[in-house]
Amino acid sequence: MTGGSQTIYFRNKPRVMSGYSIVGPKEAEGPLDPYFHKRLRKDDFGQKSFEKAECKLHMSAISGAIIAAGLTPADVDLNIGGDLLNQIITSSFSARELDIPFIGMYSACSTFGQSLIVGAALIDGGYIRRAACSTSSHFSTAERQYRFPLELGTQMTPTSQWTVTGAGCTLLGEKGNIFIESATVGKVVDFGITDANNMGAAMAPAAAKTVVTHLKDTGRDPTYYDYIVTGDLGIYGSRLFLELLESDGIKAASIHKDCGQMIFDKKQRCPQGGSGAGCSSVVFNSYFLHHLLAGAIKRMLLVPTGALLSKLSSLQGESIPGIANAVVFERED
Amino acid sequence: MLVTYLKVFTVGGLVCLIGQLLINLTKMTSAKILVTFLLVGVLLEAVGVFDAIKDFAKAGITIPITGFGSTLAKGAIEEVKTAGLLGALTGGMKAAAAGLSSAIFFGFLFSLICKSRTKV
Questions:
Q1: With B2 labelled, which of A318, B9, B44, B56 sits at a CA distance of 20 to 30 A?
Q2: What CATH number has the domain spanning A9-173?
Q3: Given 3.10.20.30, 3.40.109.10, 3.40.47.40, 3.40.50.150, which CATH number is that of A178-331?
Q4: B82 touches chain A (CB under 8 A)
Q5: In this predicted complex, what is the ipTM?
Q6: Which residue is closest to A197 within chain B, CA to CA?
Q7: Which of B20, B23, B29 should be substituted to probe chain A, the one whose Cβ sees the most A Cβ atoms within 10 Å?
Q8: Which of A100, A168, A176 shows the shortest CA–CA distance to A133?
Q9: Separation in Å, CA of A197 to nearest CA in chain B
Q10: Per residue in A236-287, pLDDT tens?
Q11: What's the whole-model pTM score?
């Protein structure tokens, strides 16, 4: 990642030891239901507040991934986690319960990509052996932090996305036949979108820029990948993303998928699909990891996308900067 | 009687339709839309046409927040007539006191017996 290149190549192949996804009831009604590891019947998870519920989700994802790899928390060197709440309380409160050294991450809904890149780099450099990369989000905690109190019962606008209730964790380490081959760190891009209910459009330029840079840095054709998977652009955002790629001469419509669009069914009344820091992590750790492990997918580019706004910045009329980080997963037979 | 219901429903529905169009076609937040409707109520009362609409549409125009705007304006105007210019500041709140106090009281009451949950 020097001399203008934004791509890191991991020569020691940090491997995916396990992945775990846990989702709320609405997500479990969606088309990806068979792939999730655990589904909640009620989204309060038996807790007094939704914030506590999200924290429990986050912890469950980390412990789920550790157990799935046949390890104990003592075997994990680092938890790299993030979420959407102010001062990332979900991740730090869940790290308080787990006896694992912790690095907190924030880059909105692209936090999962950032966590994977930092985890893979630390493992590749030989500083740590295993890292639990986790992110979460919860509809009701995000709604009241970024938008309106739940009690207000406001309507969703046609371009708004539904924050995914769920948490996902990928345990990186030395074993497994899926590895992270490289990653491209994105630049922050701002197209001047000021509507906090239209985050897909705010993030699409960042996603397109990261993918274009990745393909240029690596000299690869999009067809090198079975899938190019964006985090949560939604329907409008995805269309804009593909148009922007096309203007750079890249045709990727046939291999593009968007986690936000995949997680909910059209019947579920989410105008644009899902979003949130938990969106790309639950979809990757369920559907995509399943297909990578089964060999149906050999190589994929995961591009979690984030809208870097705060409640305050959007109230003050600031535009929404977007970010996207790209992570390459490959399967070794 | 049925004709009254029909009028109320039509006018109330039209007010809601305007709100829905504002949600779908503009970037206005629900809070801004509410305040706009309130100000429209104030304006209609101030220019003196609210009563005419109310005679025709009854609850169709008083139940939406336009009715609250009209109450505020009407209270202020009347208080000015009896108590002078200071009435412009006190009258509105006096006229709306029942509505405001009950909103606070019932808000508190329901916060004790209800639990916040995710909308569906």
A1: B44
A2: 3.40.47.40
A3: 3.40.47.40
A4: no
A5: 0.77
A6: B27
A7: B29
A8: A168
A9: 8
A10: 999 999 999 999 999 999 999 999 999 999 888 887 899 999 999 999 999 9
A11: 0.91
